Amino acid sequence: MKKDLTNILAIIVLLVGCSKKNTPGENDTTSGGAPREEATAAVNASTVQQTIQGFGGASIPIWIGDLTGDQRTKAFSTSSGIGMSILRVMVPDNSSQFAAEKATIDAAKGLGARVVATAWNAPASMMSNLYLKTTSYADYAAHLRSYNTAVGGVYAISPWNEPNYLASGWMHGTATEIANFVAQQGSNCGAPIMAPEPFNMDQTFINTYLGNTTAASKTSFVCGHIYGKTPYNLGSIGKSVWMTEHYTNSSISGNDWNNAMTAAKEIHDCMNAGWAAYVWWYIRRSYGPIDESSNITKLGYVMTHFARYIRPGYSKISCTANPTAGVYTTAYKSGTQIVIVAINTNSAITYQPFTVSAVTVNNFNRYVTTSSSNLAASSFAVSNNSFGINLPASSITTLVSY
Fold first, then answer.
1. Concatenated DSSP letters for 330-392?
2. How many beta carbons lie within 10 A of that of residue 358, not counting itself?
3. Using DSSP, how many helices (H) and how many strands (E) does the chain show?
4. Is 8 exposed, middle or buried (0-12, 13-18, 19+ CB in 10 A)?
5. What CA–CA distance (Å, rounded) separates 334 from 117?
6. In 3-state terms, what secondary structure has residue 312?
7. Rounded to a whole number, what is the largest CA-CA distance in the chain?
């Protein structure tokens, strides 16, 4: 009888343990215990991948009006805003419009953001049939240099925007032409060069550009956009890779939760591809992270999960990218601090175990955004560097160790 009673008690304990993973309670951390059916997300702080450069968006005041002071704070503040660390602006082709950029540039810098500037066109006198004249290389470099001086300096300048998108009305250019310009004038543009910024992160275009060794030596980092392209690893190109423009759907509000979750997965994919930065298109737009009424949207809160807690200089570290069906995880570190972002695309609560190696973690602050909540905060303790949490249905969670 004693043996039978022991077996019954063991079965009860097992049933209680199995049911816990489906309970959406806040006290859901675990360590040790019986094996669970979900695969563990293994974080290894000793396997360092790319250095993160940041997350951000664009402001083009001569097209859609400037950001207000409140919108700048909401975009770039790490305490009350999204925490964007990159501002992308336009280099106007008319020098009389340079000053339009300065107020937001200064505000973004003051809140700790890096500013990158892209030229859509050279002055008309320097182009022929939307191509830069070879005889205008020095004049165009002087134009870019003058812009950089007028706005007080930017982190990097891109001389071309989507040069391979020939359906556009802006300046075209082959990879060879852009490389020739940078090789000849890259040191005279007033700021470090980011290039070649192709429409679809075309690797052939990028590799051709980098094949000019002089241009490559004058290029601070490679940049491009992912229209028509799923994020992918470019391989060992010897340069940091920045994704400098994309939006998922301009016909859907930034408060559409499905669209926000699509963006969350896209940012995950960019980081998992080894890229260093993710830059949305317009910061303030109906489909952007801040809407026209100056509210942070659901998309904005999704971006906050990355931008506020993963700052420039953090390192992406090894983490199981897709440990459980519908769950996507990435991890980062700064010193001994670990940041984990977990995206649950499932329509049900999903229990996800984690292990952390090569650094000791004792506690995590947890921030959760769902269709009905924004950055809901809690904390929990960790034992023996392993834990598990319930990820709410269709949600994004950021864990920050302390």
1. EEEEETTEEEEEEEE-SSS-EEEEEEEESS---EEEEEEE-SS-SSEEEEEE-BTTEEEEEEP
2. 15
3. 10, 19
4. exposed
5. 28
6. coil
7. 98
CA atoms of 8 and 251, how far apart (whole Å): 58
Domains delineated in the chain: 25-48+316-401 (2.60.40.1180), 53-312 (3.20.20.80)
Token pair of 262 as six digits: 């699509």
Going by their DSSP bridges, the two strands 127-128 and 337-344 should be labelled as unpaired
Q: How many C-beta atoms surround the C-beta of residue 63 within 10 A?
A: 11
- Picking from 399, 365, 364, 362, the residue whose alpha carbon sits closest to that of residue 383 is 362
Residue 290 corresponds to which amino acid? I
Task: Give the Cβ contact number of residue 290 at 10 Å.
Answer: 27
Q: Under DSSP, is residue 230 helix (H, G, I), strand (E, B) or coil?
A: coil
Residue with tokens 């939006």: 247
3-state class (DSSP) for residue 289:
coil
Q: Are 325 and 310 in contact (CB under 8 A)?
A: no
- With beta carbons less than 8 A apart as the criterion, state whether 73 and 111 touch: yes
What span, in angstroms and rounded, lies between the C-alpha atoms of 400 and 393?
A: 21
Q: Residue 115 and residue 117: Cα distance in Å, rounded?
A: 7
Residues with a known catalytic role: 162, 245
In the prediction, which pLDDT does 225 show?
98
Helix 69-76 × helix 102-110 angle, to 10°:
40
Pairing of strands 127-128, 131-132: antiparallel
Tens of each residue's pLDDT in the chain, 402 residues: 333 333 333 333 333 333 333 333 343 443 333 333 469 999 999 999 999 999 999 999 999 999 999 999 999 999 999 999 999 999 999 999 999 999 999 999 999 999 999 999 999 999 999 999 999 999 999 999 999 999 999 999 999 999 999 999 999 999 999 999 999 999 999 999 999 999 999 999 999 999 999 999 999 999 999 999 999 999 999 999 999 999 999 999 999 999 999 999 999 999 999 999 999 999 999 999 999 999 999 999 999 999 999 999 999 999 999 999 999 999 999 999 999 999 999 999 999 999 999 999 999 999 999 999 999 999 999 999 999 999 999 999 999 999
Euclidean distance between CA atoms 32 and 83, whole angstroms: 36
Looking only at the bridges linking them, the beta strands covering 114-119 and 86-91 are parallel
Length of the chain measured in residues: 402
One-letter identity of residue 68: T
